[in-house]
Amino acid sequence: MAITADQIRDKLIKELAAVHVDVEDTSPNRCAASFKVLVVSSQFEGKQLLQRHRMVNTCLAEELKEIHAFEQKTLTPEQWEKQKSQ
Question: Which positions are tagged coiled coil (predicted)?
């Protein structure tokens, strides 16, 4: 069964208490093989980039078995607000 952007979004919101999640299917024909995500969560506070990415990878461990390419950007709410104002 193909993974959907909505499934990824819902799981990240639920498991990482994300306040904002963007998920884009970047597969050439939208076949759910490649995704790009932006995750904003207070759980990332005080964590290095690698730790944040590991948190996302752990959350999506089952889904990543079916995904061929996965790009992620992880921000704290403060970083997100700063980025939006630029």
Answer: none
Give me the long-range contacts of 1-5 (CB less than 8 A, separation at least 24). 2/31, 2/32, 2/66, 3/32, 3/35, 3/63, 3/66, 3/67, 4/32, 5/32, 5/35
Q: In DSSP terms, which residues pair with 70 in a beta bridge? A: 35
Rounded distance between C-alpha atoms, residue 20 and residue 27, angstroms: 22
Provide the CATH topology of domain 5-81: GMP Synthetase; Chain A, domain 3 (3.30.300)
Task: Per residue of the chain (86 residues), give pLDDT as tens.
Answer: 688 999 999 999 999 999 999 999 998 876 668 999 999 999 999 999 999 999 999 999 999 999 989 999 999 999 999 998 88
